[in-house]
Amino acid sequence: MADVPLILPNGVILVYGWGTKRDGSEGLITPTSQEFVFGFVYKIWDGGAVFVYSGDEVMWKEGDEQVQLAYDGNPYTQIECRLVTKQIIPV
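^ thats the sequence. predicted structure below, dont judge the formating
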């Protein structure tokens, strides 16, 4: 996988993939009534302290994405860091 040649703006992360309804580490599936998806952080912005790091699994509300793109045949989602969480939301 080639490195995505993208400079991320302040407070933005790049997640690998479009987001899935199933969490990769624990196999948690979000209820269909809730529109949360999971993905792994591919790249973070270079501007200061963040609470997520490359490789972390995060969750966000579907539709909060800024951009979804494909590069070198691989899908990525760009989203504001403040809109993701590493915590599982109770249902």
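Residues 33 and 91 are 10 Å apart (CA to CA).
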